[in-house]
Amino acid sequence: MLLQELTWPVVKNLSRDIPVIIPIAAVEQHGSHLPLYTDSMLLGEITRRIDDEMGEAVLITPLMWYGNSHHHLDFPGTLSCAPRVYLDLLHSLVDNLITHGFRRLLVLNGHGGNDVPGKQAIFELRQQYRERDDLLLLFATYWLLGGRPWESLSEIVQREMGHACEWETSMMLRIAPGLVGGYPEIDPVPHGNPFLPATRGWVTQDRSTPGHIGSPHLASAEKGEHLLATFTEDVRRLIARVEKWDGNSWEG
């Protein structure tokens, strides 16, 4: 169910144990061949598929396109919420749903820059409601839920998400090919090893002058459908775990 299509009396009568999915993404540069709305379009497609498959078993809030993308601000068109402001924005959004009585909340992320503030918001909310053992507060990024799409489709070369890469370009070729530019001529930009396992502070131009990271020239619509199906199934399995949670235990 989509929250934006319901009336308040319908929402009032929903079970407070229904899994609530809060999709968050971004509007930011995606190299020279993909639109600024790529992250939001891809996460929107995954949540659309979840809604089609699960129907009234899940409640999905409107996708929040305003993300934390300051590392892309050197590229025109990027819209970014400052990290600390974004943390408070997510905190308030999830807190609204807790105020309405919902107990099983999953922030589903579609943009890497949202990862740190998103996790921190969830962590702080748990401290705020530390006396509650009936709250399940989760943050997850859809491509980090365990799927290994290259194992079931050997043509997929990348082993991790990049940016405007083989994976994202393939998924966009599947859902909006008319918005994809001349990707076959684009040279790959390797992920590199930025002092791993340490975490290095960076802006996009430290890593990539054209804005993409990975191998967009390898993309195909066939790969895109396989990736979308894999990631949608990963999300569905996580939601099933949320549904089965007994209401107060640590394990899920």
How would you explain this protein's 3D organization?
With 252 residues, the protein is an alpha/beta fold. It has a single domain, classed as Creatininase (Rossmann fold, 3-Layer(aba) Sandwich), CATH 3.40.50.10310. 38% of the residues lie in helices and 8% in strands. The protein is built from 8 helices and 4 strands. The protein has a 4-stranded parallel beta sheet with strand order 2-1-3-4, with helices on both faces. Helix 2 links the parallel strand 1 and strand 2. The mean pLDDT is 96.
List keywords for this structure.
alpha/beta, Rossmann fold, 4 strands, 38% helix, globular
Major sheet details = 4 strands, parallel
Q: Assign an overall shape.
A: globular
Number of domains: 1
Computed structural class: alpha/beta
End-to-end Cα distance, whole Å, is 23 Å
Total number of helices: 8
Looking at CATH, which topology would you report? Rossmann fold
For the biggest β-sheet, the strand order reads 2-1-3-4
CATH C-level name: Alpha Beta
Strand count: 4
Measured as a percent range, the helix fraction is: 25-40%
Low-confidence stretches: none
Mean pLDDT: 96
The Cα radius of gyration reads: 18 Å
Strand/helix succession: HEHEHEHEHHHH
Strand-residue proportion? 5-15%
Based on the coordinates given, report the CATH architecture.
3-Layer(aba) Sandwich
